[in-house]
Model the fold of this input.
Amino acid sequence: MKISILSKMLLFFSPIIFLCACEKNSVSNNGAAQTGKGGSITRFTIAKNYLYVVSNHFLNVYSLSDPAKPRQVHTSDLNYDIETIYPYGNYLFLGTRTGLYIYSIDTASSPSLIGEAKHARSCDPVVVNDSVAFVTLKSSSGCGPAEAGLYIHDIADINHPVLKKTIPLPDPMGLGIQDSILYVCCGSAGMKVFNVKDPYSPTLISTQADGKYLDVIPYNGILICNDEEGIILYDIHDPAKPALIKKIS
Done:
């Protein structure tokens, strides 16, 4: 019997919810106060004791000072189609249909736009590592005319992101990074595993072909993959060599 959409969502996020509960006041390895880790195509995230939620044209901020009673404290009306949100350090990276937008959360209750990198209309997940932002663009009738691929931006100057490299890929979707290894989901074309130690000259290491990959979350030596049929788990204690643990459908 095929898993329902709701059940699959719950199944995909339940490991993260559990980890969040266990690490409620932890600090992530990127320096921002976090309570868990999400994928690259998520529409909500937690940083600095605030919940940030994006809808098509709005960035909503909720205070979690009383976690049992989240309180909305701010709404930004944004003039672009927001798709994803990703926290890193003191910043929120918003993937939209028209570009990558960077918001400072130095004032956590009221994020402010500080940088942007526009592109042709497309779907736009993003992950960040140090001074580099990795973005996937998908070209399809539902996304737009941009060339499908991996777009790599230099964000050393956070206010002025610069596109440094483009790698054509077959309609990529979600992506995740662990150390110097980048995982890019390409649906039925597999999950591409790149070495990005030199971020502007990535090397393709392998392609995993155990499912139709939608998104990934690297967490504590485990790679949690959202697949069209359910969840795929890999051991990534050696990040460059994902070892299949099990498939859950």
